[in-house]
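Task 17 of the worksheet. Students: predict the tertiary structure of the chain below and write it out as structure tokens. Keep your answer in the requested format; marks are given for formatting as well as content.
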Amino acid sequence: MRRESGFETGSVLSRWSPGTFRCTTKSWVSRRSPAVTGADEDIASLVERVAALLMARNVRLATAESCTGGWLAKSLTDLPGSSAWFEFGFVAYGNNAKETLLAVDPLSIERYGAVSREVAIQMAVTARAVSEADIAVAVTGIAGPDGGTPEKPVGTVWLAWDGPDRRASTRLEHYVGDRRAVRRQALLAALTGLLRQLADG
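Model answer:
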């Protein structure tokens, strides 16, 4: 078992290796989603609903963010009393940060890209394992205005959620709008996905 930045990662990496990590993809969105601004009040309302479910189930949450740059963790901890259920927030913006802090395999980034299902899963799995939280959410995407390709245009976002049942779920989104709109829509998707995960649990 190897260690990176003081974290044991061998057991984490085995979670997503072929044949050992079970993953379900609950939603695949191939069309471009309409732009949604999402007022601050909408975000706060979603956070309150997430917090209520976390408290009711006595579980703690961790986040792993790339394109949202900590906006998700900030929104969650804006709520007073969030220390009762928020455990850890990672911001791994660059590839080196993803590899060092979140044990993302460099070969996964080389083969699939930093914005991919495989990388999102590894981010969520490691965030939950390292923080010892009960559930984790990860976000990686291309917010623009640059960085897009024909295969992965600006607005492409992968999200992943990992819970105590050791089954990760992922979601692919294609957003429209400017950089702030893409990031805000990714934030809203992360929160609504948490609601679904907690409701199903």
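Marker's comment: The chain is about 40% helix and 20% strand. The longest strand covers residues 135-141.
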